[in-house]
Amino acid sequence: MIQFFRRIFNSKIGLIGSFIFIALVAVSFAGSDISGSMNGSGTSLGSGVVAEVGKHDISSEELQMRAQNQLDIQRREMPGLDMTTFINAGGFEQTLEQMINVRALDGFADQAGFAVSRRLVDAEIAGIPAFNGPGGKFDRTTFLSVLAQRRVTEKQLRGDIASDLLTRQMLVPTGAVSRVPALLARPYAALSLEERSGMVGFVPSAALTDGAAPSDAELTQYYNRNIGRYTVPERRVIRYAVFDRAMLAAKAKPTEADIADYYKANATRYAASETRNITQVILQDQNAARAFETKVRGGTSFAAAAAQAGLEASTLTEQSKQAFAGLSSEAAANAAFAAAQGTVLAPQRSGLGWHVIRVDGVKTIPARSLESVRAEINQALEKEKLDAALSDFAANIENMIADKATFDEILKANNLTAITTPAITAAGVDPDNADFRPDASFARFLEPAFEMSADDDPTIETIEDGNRYALTDVERVIPATPRPLAQVRAAVTEAFKLERASARAKAIADAIVAKVSKGMPLPQAMNEAGVKLPAPERIGGKRSEISASGRPVAPPLTLLFSMAEKRAKHLEAPGKQGWFVVWLDKITPGDINTQPQLVDLLRREMSRAIGQEYTEQFVNATKAELGVKRNAEAAAKLKRQLAGSESLAQ
Asked: d(Cα 559, Cα 509) in Å, to the nearest integer?
């Protein structure tokens, strides 16, 4: 999962993300909602502002919308991705950083007098597939319809596209100048072909753990010196009571009267209706529209007449009268739905121009009786009543909290059952019971519970939005406390022995290095160490082959490729398990003539890396020039809201 997000956000400042805003807009038209504008203003970092770049704000609403859009885009590669996973992988911070970067670039472009022509923006819009008509080309009717469906104004869309184009104008040339000459790449390419060989020995601490038992004074001194290792982190005892839709299901059963009233209130939905298939073209001039109508009535096909006029006819299938009125005008819809199938109508006026319409097909949908839709109505009413019951239940608890009711009083009044955790850490772990596993839903509100104090009022936390919630309360806070030495004496004794053995192992490794540095072979120096040690092993290989495996390189091998020839060095093993002794016997320089293609490959890689650095520094310079202020509190609050730990309605 983390590797996926590293691929998505592959630089510190998210420069790839800076270029995705145009893609974000385009993709969002295929399935997500866009609202709001990138053009906030103001200079005060209020509670609803997460950052300020120059004189322009980035509001919580903007960041919320962008984060949701980013999530929607990532879901196309990972359909099961949810907002919590997205946030835990760093998506929230990366999205905010991208917005700050783009806003800084916009501000710098404005100061420098950069501009984007309307024609260039038009070209970008025409290239967005979601705006294509039935013939596969840009269609303004489709364009306006899609914007209306997504509740985006044309001005907002053009502003985002212009911002992206300005970003490209500045960053593409900045990164493109990073061409690395072959003369610079050649020695690095040769270095990748370098081959090294040597030996590694190991002095294990386990071979040196024998010795006198530590005294009480030694143990006490070691314990005090490493007190943090034996300190239990802050713990909390948390009580929570879950309430959900299932417990309120009995209150959501519709009566016969409810069903009848719903049927009556939605009579138009169940009444007989009609849809039509319509072909149309839209012309800007009335005379041209009349000429088009005459040509079609005279026998020219609709498609041919449109092509001769330099237009393309659009076909709308199964249009209701109301839907077609939204795409044209009420008068045009009335005329189209009054005409017989096959009729070509006289030009009809709308805000888009003059519509020439042909009715291709008429489909009549018969009325539906109450009995035929009873199950459908019952299901809709159950959901409606259950939504209302859950909302009322939560509102009643919120009111009791506001009235200073205690956790127990709320439990009793609402017939809820509480669960009490043991004293757990912020990771949900009980240090006294390794087998403890909290309820899976508990993890959703563990973090906010550790932001509360025992004196705070109970809160309602979201487990599953619209379905499950929990009333939570911190019963007790236990500060971080060291375990008494008597309680951890055995563990302290073992750690003391291991540290003492590690020190002995280091002394032996020091002596071996000294002997090898004076010319003694490593196997002989290890045999003369005074303690039985494992035989040394041969190590080495080509630098490129070792790094190409994709696996972590063993520390002794890493050390081998950083040493001078005919030298020995030692290196501590992880966890004080012992000491490695590394001897570099021979370095065979790489011959680039055996693989000359590596020079060009490395040139490209170095050019990309340097280009990324140039663009990164350019963006950082624009932020420094304009000035960036961040509201960490507002950002943290929104992050919790998006993760489901607070209500977005707050």
From this structure: 15
Round to whole Å and give the CA distance between 316 and 339: 16
Distance CA 103, CA 54 (A): 9
Q: Which of 461, 468, 473 is nearest to 411 (CA)?
A: 473
Across the chain, what does the average pLDDT equal?
83
307 and 218 share a domain? no
Q: Are 377 and 263 in contact (CB under 8 A)?
A: yes
Position 531: which residue type? V
pLDDT in tens, 134-170: 667 888 878 887 776 666 778 878 888 888 888 888 8
The reported pLDDT for the residue numbered 37 is 36
Task: Check residues 433 and 141 and name the one with the higher pLDDT.
Answer: 433
The identity of residue 394, as a single letter, is A
Report the interhelical angle of 140-150 vs 154-176 (nearest 10°): 100
Supply the range of the domain harboring residue 451: 235-245+384-479
If asked whether residues 59 and 134 sit together in one domain, one would say yes
Please check whether residue 372 lies inside any domain of the structure.
no
Q: What is the 3-state secondary structure (H, E, C) of 456-499?
A: CCCEEEEEECCCEEEEEEEEEEECCEECCCCCCHHHHHHHHHHH
Helix 597-626 crosses helix 182-192 at what angle (to 10 degrees)? 110
Pairing mode of beta strands 468-478, 195-204: unpaired
Q: Is there a single domain that holds both residue 280 and residue 389?
A: no
Same domain for 288 and 403? no
Q: What is the pTM of this model?
A: 0.49
